[in-house]
Design goal:
With 215 residues, the protein is mostly helical. The chain has a single domain (2-212), classed as MFS general substrate transporter like domains (Growth Hormone, Chain: A, Up-down Bundle), CATH 1.20.1250.20. Helices cover 77% and strands 0% of the residues. The protein contains nine helices and no strands. The chain starts with 6 loop residues before the first helix and ends with a helix.
Length: 215
């Protein structure tokens, strides 16, 4: 049954799975991290920071993704959509590593703002490419596979994240989140040539066009 799904959709689902698996590790313990590492163990202050971080993230993401979506629609071809996906994923990974060095409230809010903008880049571009390449006549099945992979990723990794924090602390979580985010970004290059016409691809090393680019 899964063999009937096109390569583009398969890779995008895998990329989405990797991203959500990574951030799923952090989701159930993020408020604990804020309370212990940012608020100095003050539960009330930790709750306040967590609420402010959530507010900042969702408001900024909601504001930025609309103009980004409109711009992507106005730009011909899928080159812009593809590289917005890749860049958004990559920046999200940087956010995860940034938490390793955060110690103040403004550090958290800055990272939340960057993550919000990164997701505002990723969501419209990912949705646009997924919609264009979805298997005709199997739209409901493709979306159900994507939603199921999301559920498994977040659900299973959430339990693992709690276990890892209890044994090794928060550092390992942020490292893993960053790694999975980068893998999510890199995996998209498996379908680059199926989304962008070859003549529009940037020159690659050992590609004749690479050397012509410098002539």
């Amino acid at each position: 049954m899964l063999n009937s799904i096109s390569k583009v959709i398969k890779v995008m689902i895998i990329s989405d799975f990797l991203l959500n698996w990574g951030w799923g590790l952090l989701a159930p313990v993020f408020a604990l991290f804020l309370t212990q590492n940012i608020a100095g163990g003050d539960f009330r202050k930790g709750a306040e920071i967590a609420g402010g971080a959530a507010l900042l993230y969702w408001v900024l993401k909601s504001i930025f993704q609309i103009p980004i979506g409109l711009w992507l629609d106005k730009t011909k071809g899928e080159k812009d959509d593809f590289y917005f996906m890749v860049l958004g994923d990559f920046l999200i990974g940087l956010c995860a590593f940034g938490y390793l060095f955060s110690s103040k409230v403004w550090h958290v809010y800055l990272l939340q703002a960057l993550q919000a903008i990164s997701m505002a880049m990723l969501v419209p571009s990912f949705s646009a490419v997924f919609t264009r390449h979805i298997d005709k006549g199997k739209e409901a099945f493709d979306w159900s596979i994507k939603s199921t992979s999301f559920g498994f990723a977040v659900g299973i990794s959430g339990g693992i994240g709690g276990f890892l924090v209890s044994r090794f602390g928060f550092e390992i979580i942020f490292i893993l989140v960053g790694i999975f985010s980068f893998l999510s970004s890199l995996s998209l290059f498996l379908i680059e040539e199926k989304i962008i016409p070859k003549e529009k691809l940037p020159p690659r090393l050992f590609d004749g066009r690479f050397f012509k680019f410098f002539h």
